[in-house]
Amino acid sequence: MTLPYRAAEQVLKPEWIDFNGHLNMAYYVVLFDWGVDEVQDQIGLGVRYAETSGFTTFSAEFRIRYVRELPPGSRVYSTFRLLDVGPKAYHFCQELRHADGWLAATGEGISLHIDRSGPKVAPYPAAVMQNLEAMLADHAATPVPEWIGQPMGVRK
Fold first, then answer.
1. For residue 86, what are the domain limits?
2. Which of 52, 54, 129, 144 could form a disulfide with 124 if both were Cys (CB 3.0 to 4.6 A apart)?
């Protein structure tokens, strides 16, 4: 596994470009979410799990920092780094990068494991927890990005 995980490259669609001539803010979430979907498949929490187990995942929180504009037609990819794992949730961060390597946006979130019969937050099954713990151990070798936990100041 690449540390941190690198999702498949995507090309910005023309309908995602706003009246300012760059990627509309809503589609940053889409791109980050697709990157999480790829990781969820690898750890056993993907679409098949949701369709067959009675459990799924929900986003509890997600914070985006917009760093640099993405122009029309850009090729981009997201990364994923697991920061912490609990019995019912995990904390992660992502970067959205242009195919040339420069940083466009950062994301930080918490994903919850959900029992659909409630719906309510529920513990991960043992196999999924094992996968999460293995990924956490792999990702621990990668430094935590310096932007994690920084306040969102508006004064200079």
1. 5-139
2. 129
